[in-house]
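Below is how a single chain appears once it has passed through the pipeline. First comes the sequence as given, then the structure the pipeline wrote out for it. We keep one example in the README because the format questions we get most often are answered faster by looking than by reading.
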Amino acid sequence: MQQTDVKAATCPSAVTTTAYLGRTRLKGLNISATLAATVSILDGDTTLFTYTASVAGPIPINIPGEGILCATSLVVTCSAGANAVVFYG
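Resulting structure:
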């Protein structure tokens, strides 16, 4: 198994952020949200998953195994009321 460095990117509220341009793996994310806020994780233009907050406050999301592959780029869209820190590598 090849070791990779894990990096982080901050993704602000009400913005689409390209966290990494290129092939990478999403390792985890921390969301800070108010009720009814969403965070979507995309591989380029393809949505991999969307998380809708059901509670206000910090929400850690652990990704098992080797993470989620983003073949082209790791893009994060945060709605108003949510921001995230993504961990990738």
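The mean pLDDT is 94.

See the next section for the split statistics.
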